[in-house]
Amino acid sequence: MVKGRLEAFSDGVIAIVITIMVLEMKVPDEANLAALRPIIPVFLSYVLSFIFLGIYWNNHHHLLQAVRHVNGRILWANLHLLFWLSLIPFVTGWMGENNFSAMPVALYGTVLLFAAIAYFILTRVLIDHHGKDSILATAIGRDFKGKISPVFYAVAIPLSFVNSWLSCVLYILVAIMWLIPDPRIERNIT
Amino acid sequence: MVKGRLEAFSDGVIAIVITIMVLEMKVPDEANLAALRPIIPVFLSYVLSFIFLGIYWNNHHHLLQAVRHVNGRILWANLHLLFWLSLIPFVTGWMGENNFSAMPVALYGTVLLFAAIAYFILTRVLIDHHGKDSILATAIGRDFKGKISPVFYAVAIPLSFVNSWLSCVLYILVAIMWLIPDPRIERNIT
Amino acid sequence: MVKGRLEAFSDGVIAIVITIMVLEMKVPDEANLAALRPIIPVFLSYVLSFIFLGIYWNNHHHLLQAVRHVNGRILWANLHLLFWLSLIPFVTGWMGENNFSAMPVALYGTVLLFAAIAYFILTRVLIDHHGKDSILATAIGRDFKGKISPVFYAVAIPLSFVNSWLSCVLYILVAIMWLIPDPRIERNIT
Amino acid sequence: MVKGRLEAFSDGVIAIVITIMVLEMKVPDEANLAALRPIIPVFLSYVLSFIFLGIYWNNHHHLLQAVRHVNGRILWANLHLLFWLSLIPFVTGWMGENNFSAMPVALYGTVLLFAAIAYFILTRVLIDHHGKDSILATAIGRDFKGKISPVFYAVAIPLSFVNSWLSCVLYILVAIMWLIPDPRIERNIT
After folding, report:
1. Which chain B residue shows the shortest CA-CA distance from C53?
2. In this complex, which of B5, B17, B73 lies closest to C19 when CB atoms are compared?
């Protein structure tokens, strides 16, 4: 079974999710700078989610490189990941429109947490299918970032009710951690 | 005539349908847990439709694997299927926003029924074009699930006016039936 | 220059146009049959536009089959076609929400007219690039349907101010004409 | 690392951005010509942005032709470009709905400026990866248009507060400059 359509469908969903998020930035009626001010938190939450979705697309791209064949379980593990990613526009809009207050920031982290778990499940299902000595298993490796990210989210969710800005700092730290290139992985793939 | 664009276009439409459904989950104005409560039925109907669209994408993916060539009739049979799938966001939103009351649940089943019929027509048109002894015809086989699903919908539609939750149970049963892997088909394709 | 991305981009735009049209069908607040009644004309206009976009996608699919190489002019002729197609959701919504009254029906025809002209220009630019003796030129042939369609639209636009339903009949006639398979073209391509 | 998914994802995002812009053209309630009048500036800003996005897609298409391999930095440089392009529907809607008044026209230019810078960064990152003597570097050449465009935007942004129509003229001049075919580049690619 070829992986081409799995990639194409995932690309399509992530591209749409990343783009419809911008629809949450409602065009203001007034044409002055003051009218833009309430949009600033919505814009900031958009930037954060754009980066997270970019990271997911990037990692998905890398992961699928090493995939040789897919089966029904893999298709569903992938759809499960896309499901959680599809909820990002909703929580992004809620967080931005309520100026990063406790409950929306906690729900944002919850969706990120479930997306991270879904990604982890996808890697396990793929390794299961390709074998522990496959190029894929080697490319995924110990997956330190994949394992530490859910811990950050799990801390950030309750922390949000103490100080929601601290939770946002944790989300940003996770994003930065993923943005720092990992030469070991790129070398492995080559 | 190559099937690549047929797959790409179908992937595109299904990816968009699955993603714009989430736009029916309107971001609430308040930032507390109570504000999320009216969204719960919308969310549940979203989950159900996400699974149904996932099943359709999965089956479409499998079906097209065995396709060798396409013609005008096949393109239109496929567009006919996509038409019914494109109505799913509308009925999903109506069902969720009205807390699974009788009429929306019946209309939801009606759209699922027509989508199932459209999928059945697509398989017939494909077998017609490839021959009864083709790999495609063998892969489709007796198509038990494809034939029993419309029966479930046809029962669920009138049943909705008696008890709409029973209809939802029937929809969930159909989804579970399709989610259970069918090793025979995967073996046939290999 | 390869044509793969031209096809992929066109597929993407047409898939999105065909799907966001459904967003014009606003989910009604009430959960009864009466609440669906005002949506019926919107639904009918959606069906008509779905068929027209399906015809365009089909024809575009056939046309690009015979294309060997693309250049800047072809890319822009194609974008010009996509521009007019992208206006279809707007005119479809306006026509449906105003129950097929004169002005919206005339504007609907105007957009169809410009789309037909854009498609005609695209075929000319393609023949120009491939030569009059190319397979492409033979496949396009006399292009009777492509030449008669704009005439229908040009009649339907002023006619709408006399009786807008007659214009709709003309639009439906054009759609039927394109839906009737043309064995000569399929044979030529083979 | 293959470039196929980079192209597919970029095509997807640009196709969605170009299409959801049309959603800013809200369907009017009345069915007469007067109801269309307030939509005219929204339509004009849509046409302008459609052309700009068409130019970006065209240039991206050409640029990627000469690309041989991609790495993490290239993926992010590309996502950075897509980020600025994704903001175009928002600024297009704001500019159109406020009849091309000073602040929205300035913000429109700002987004175009950042998109131009992002495109420039993408070309540098690509040349960096392929070498200064690569076909890619030759194809990009001195990149006169790419260097002069940001200058136009940088002039247009403050100018908007003097006369916003003059800024629009500058935007149109940039668009025309890119629309004029550049035979040297097409020759180089061949």
Report:
1. B79
2. B17
B186–chain A nearest CA distance, Å: 8
| Chain A interface with B: residues with Cβ < 8 Å | 1-2, 5-6, 8-9, 12-13, 16-17, 20, 23-24, 71-73, 75-76, 79, 82-83, 86-87, 89-90, 93-94, 97-98, 101-104, 107
Q: Using CA atoms, how far apart are residues D160 and A139, in angstroms rounded to an integer?
A: 52
Determine contact, residues B78/B129, Cβ cutoff 8 Å. no
**CA separation for the pair D3, D14 (Å, rounded):** 17
Query: pLDDT of D75-85, one tens digit each?
Result: 999 999 999 99
Residue A138 CA: distances (Å) to CA of A61, A62, A119: 16, 13, 17
List, in sequence order, the alpha helices (H) in chain D. 4-20, 33-36, 40-65, 72-86, 88-97, 102-130, 135-140, 144-159, 164-179, 183-189
Question: What is the pTM assigned to this prediction?
Answer: 0.93
Low-confidence ranges of chain B (pLDDT < 70): 1, 181-190
DSSP state of A180: S
- Secondary structure letter of residue D37 according to DSSP: G
Using CA atoms, how far residue C40 sits from A2, A22, C100, in Å, is: 42, 31, 11
Within 10 angstroms of residue C31's Cβ, the number of other Cβ atoms is 20
Query: Which contiguous run of DSSP H or E holds residue A6?
Result: helix A4-20
* Pure H helices in chain B: 4-20, 33-36, 39-65, 72-86, 88-97, 102-130, 135-140, 144-159, 164-179, 183-189
Alpha carbons A123 and A63: distance in angstroms, whole number: 8
CB-CB under 8 Å, B98 with C31: yes
Cα–Cα distance measured from residue B16 to residue B9, given in angstroms and rounded to the nearest whole number: 11
The answer to whether the Cβ–Cβ distance between B54 and A101 falls below 8 Å is no
Q: Rounded distance, CA B157 to CA B105, Å?
A: 7
What is the distance of C-alpha A30 from the center of its chain? Answer: 34
Q: Using alpha carbons only, how large is chain A's radius of gyration in Å? A: 18
**Shortest Cα distance, chain B CAs vs residue C15, angstroms:** 5
Partner-chain contact D16 A14, CB within 8 Å? no
Cα C43 to Cα B35, B79, B94, C107: the distances in Å are: 32, 17, 15, 18
Place of tokens 């100026």: A99
- A vs D, Cβ pairs < 8 A, gives 75
Give the CA radius of gyration of chain D: 18
CA B65 to chain centre: 18
Amino acid at C141: G
**Please, are residues A146 and A119 in contact by the beta-carbon 8 Å criterion?**
yes
Cα distances (angstroms) measured from residue A143 to each of A112, A135, A153: 17, 14, 17
Give the pLDDT band (50/70/90) at residue A78.
very high
Assess contact for D111 and D88: CB atoms under 8 A. yes
Q: Residue D90 phi/psi, 5° resolution?
A: -60, -55
3-class secondary structure per residue, chain C:
CCCHHHHHHHHHHHHHHHHHHHHHCCCCCCCCHHHHCCHHHHHHHHHHHHHHHHHHHHHHHHHHHCCCCCCHHHHHHHHHHHHHHHCHHHHHHHHHHCCCCHHHHHHHHHHHHHHHHHHHHHHHHHHHHHCCCCHHHHHHCCCHHHHHHHHHHHHHHHHCCCCHHHHHHHHHHHHHHHHCCCHHHHHHHC
Task: Tell me how crowded residue B55 is: count the other CB atoms within 10 A of its CB.
Answer: 19
Select from A150, A127, A128 the least CA-distant residue to A137. A127
pLDDT in tens, B81-133: 999 999 999 999 999 999 999 999 999 999 999 999 999 999 999 999 888 88
ipTM of the complex: 0.91
